[in-house]
Design brief:
Elements (H helix, E strand, L loop, with lengths): L2 E7 L7 H12 L4 E5 L18 H10 L4 E7 L7 H11 L12 E6 L7 H13 L10 E3 L14 H30 L1
Parallel strand pairs: 1-2, 1-3, 3-4, 4-5
């Protein structure tokens, strides 16, 4: 059965390394995953005062994420954490309180950096939010792509020697999603 997955990329730059990695993850995903990238750059900053008449961008974002079976986050690291637009997308989707579009959706996090740590800090900061949002985060394999600039060719495609690692990650994510789809069916039947 095909699973619908929202890809949320934390970088707004159109030619960013993170976007290129996101495209590679889509390309290397098993056929059981239908992945749709959902843009976050136009989301107004979250402000609870606006919930009485939410901005149309918030409503559209929530409506696109809500029916998805899972979420795949791709993030760079900014100052040892996630970029502000990604945190805003997490906040917008998690509100109003009690109506989070993320609740119980399995997720995975791919982080990357031209530096040597592969976005480790960003990856783990995002995991903290996902735990609070009741999103089961895939634990293994982890995906921290260090020196990401060296993993891409002149056309922005992942080099052959790195493709297997990304493919393994996406296959594991498909299995992770299936585990929680089964759990949902079991909970519904109980």
């Amino acid at each position: 059965m095909a699973r619908n997955v929202a890809l949320i990329v934390g970088s707004l730059r159109k030619d960013s390394f993170t976007r290129k990695i996101g495209r590679a993850l889509i390309e290397l995903a098993p056929d059981s995953l239908h992945i749709e990238q959902i843009e976050i750059g136009a989301l107004p900053l979250y402000n609870q005062d606006l919930e009485t008449s939410p901005p149309r961008e918030w409503v559209a974002f929530r409506d696109r994420v809500r029916p998805m079976n899972a979420v795949l986050f791709a993030t760079p690291e900014y100052n040892r954490s996630i970029p502000a637009p990604l945190k805003n997308a997490v906040d917008v989707g998690s509100r109003p309180f009690g109506k989070s579009v993320y609740r119980a959706k399995p997720c995975a996090i791919a982080s990357c950096s031209p530096g040597q740590y592969g976005g480790f800090g960003a990856n783990h900061h995002l995991r903290q939010s996902c735990v609070f949002l009741d999103m089961p985060v895939m634990q293994q394999p982890e995906l921290y792509l260090a020196h990401v600039d060296k993993l891409l060719d002149e056309n922005g495609k992942v080099i052959e020697s790195s493709r297997g690692h990304l493919e393994k990650f996406m296959n594991a994510f498909a299995c992770w999603i299936d585990v929680f789809a089964l759990s949902d069916k079991q909970r519904s039947a109980a």
